[in-house]
Amino acid sequence: MKSSFSKIIDSETPVLVGFYADWCGPCKMLGPILKQVKDEMGEAVKIVKIDVDKNQSIAAKYQVRGVPTMLLFKNGKQLWRQSGVLQKNDLIQIVKSHA
């Protein structure tokens, strides 16, 4: 997963990564919001969900201490991060501001 994760985030297209866990209540709210962002933005953004319990090395590398945490990458560089649930319009603005 690690090498493919590096390939995924090394993209001209902004990549929004959502770190989550199955046991996390707020994470369940974030799933449908990420889908709405993808539906609205289409090819302008890639969205990847990472289960921290199954991908602990990636979570550790990016110092994800709590879930949900979202990171935005472009060309392999981290441009933004925030923990907690954000609304669709806020996420779209953040992606557009870094596109």
Fold blueprint:
Layout: H1 2-9, E1 15-20, H2 25-41, E2 46-51, H3 56-61, E3 69-74, E4 77-83, H4 88-98
Parallel strand pairs: 1-2
Antiparallel strand pairs: 1-3, 3-4
Helix pairs in contact: 2-4
List keywords for this structure.
globular; Thioredoxin_domain; protein-disulfide reductase activity; 99 residues; 4 helices; four-stranded mixed β-sheet; Glutaredoxin; alpha+beta; redox-active center
Could you say how many structural domains there are in total?
1
Helix-strand topology string? HEHEHEEH
Biggest sheet layout: 4 strands, mixed
Supply the helix-strand structural class: alpha+beta
Proportion of β residues? 25-35%
Number of helices: 4
What's the alpha carbon Rg, rounded to whole Å?
A: 12 Å
CATH architectural category: 3-Layer(aba) Sandwich
Strand order of the largest sheet: 2-1-3-4
Helix content: 40-55%
The CATH H-level homologous superfamily: Glutaredoxin
Q: Mean pLDDT, nearest integer?
A: 95
User: How far is the N terminus from the C terminus?
Assistant: 25 Å
In total, how many beta strands? 4
- Return the CATH topology: Glutaredoxin
- Could you list the spans in which at least 5 consecutive residues all have pLDDT below 50? none
CATH classification, class level: Alpha Beta
Shape: globular
Family: Belongs to the thioredoxin family.
Protein name: Thioredoxin
Keywords: Disulfide bond, Electron transport, Redox-active center, Transport
Pfam families: Thioredoxin (PF00085)
